[in-house]
Amino acid sequence: MKYKYVRIRSSIGGTYYYKDENGKISPRQVIDDMAAQGYRYVGNIPVKQGGYGSLMEYDMIFEYCCQ
User: What is the Cα Rg of the chain in Å?
Assistant: First the structure.
């Protein structure tokens, strides 16, 4: 199986985003974009926590599912 990881970060305002060459993209848009490429969302892995356990960064995990 083939997996792809996308790093999602938290902004100062508390919203999550992925930054690419076109700017900031919401996690929902990342899922839609990856689905269009034949991947399905399977989960996430916490990468960085802030004070009081707040989630600062996580990797979204996608599995290639279509030929």
Answer: 13
